[in-house]
Amino acid sequence: MIRSTQRKLSFPFILGLSILLLYAAYKTWFGSLKTNDRDESVNVAAARSHVLSSKFNIPNVQNSKGFNFFGNSIQSERRRLIKEFCKQTGQTTQRDFDDALRHLAVNLSSKIIYCVTPKCASRQMRQMLFPFRVQGEPGVPKIWQFPKHEEDIMVETYFKLTFVHKFVYPRNRPLLERHGGRILKNFRLNATQRALKELNDITFREFIEYLVTKGSNRSTSVMDWHWDNYVNICGMCSIEYDFIGHYETMEQDLADFITAAGLSAEDARRLAAYRHTPSSTSSSLLKYYSQIPLEWIDILGQIYKANFEMFGYNFPGPLKSLYEN
Length: 325
Prior knowledge:
Belongs to the sulfotransferase 2 family. One of its GO terms (biological process) is carbohydrate biosynthetic process. It is found in: Golgi apparatus membrane. This is Carbohydrate sulfotransferase. InterPro entries: Carb_sulfotrans_8-10 (IPR018011), Sulfotransferase (IPR005331). A hairpin with a 4-residue loop joins strand 1 and strand 2 (112-115). A 4-stranded mixed beta sheet has the order 1-2-3-4. The protein is built from 16 helices and 4 strands. The chain is mainly alpha-helical. It starts with a helix and ends with a helix. Helix content is 56%, strand content 6%. It is globular.
């Protein structure tokens, strides 16, 4: 009787034990698959980062900031003006953020992001901030070249800066390459075939007429990034910048930036050695803008209203004397 009962109990016991063992084996196998998939995904992202980092001779991204912030009243006021403008205009969109990524250069070793802005000594800034640039390389590393999750980490944790300018007027190269033909066809009567081919004698007045006639306060094909509003170039309302430099006070602002970003001694020496020679003094601006009607200057004031309000510039600023004559 006792043996019979033990035999009857042994079958369900063995069956249950088998089910438990099979379940444990399934969990172990399936779990390892998920882990392997996740590890493979991480490894692919790491490999992409390593390839890009090797190309630019820079270390891999780290989720660490470690900067020394300071109570600079000038910077506090500049950031306040930006926040106030963005709050009033509601100009915060994903498109602004995505567009700005094209202009954000990144130094991974110093954990610095620099929004490149034309006519604000941007060439010299890149030389100082990115000394590791290799001769013959197309340029400095940009945020958009990294995986999305690394973009987010860098934008969130790195020290972000840019420099802005009161009045911007273009030099020849980008103007001639992209807009010269349209300017001559629309605003020069009887433009010669030679002028249309060479595009080397476009005047400042013709360029401004192109802007005030076809320009906009939004990014368009006419509003090339070389003369677009900074809010559109750098995504000022989508990215919270730690430091806003003014071209007009560049040497002092660079000294403040060295302190704010906690730069290494080597980086600090390189930036401290810079001597600023403004290319757009009040006298040169007056020389250019005296060639155009005051009505055009007023239209430019509307097109670039965001720049004036966001960065505390007065309009018409250095052009005030033109209105008094």
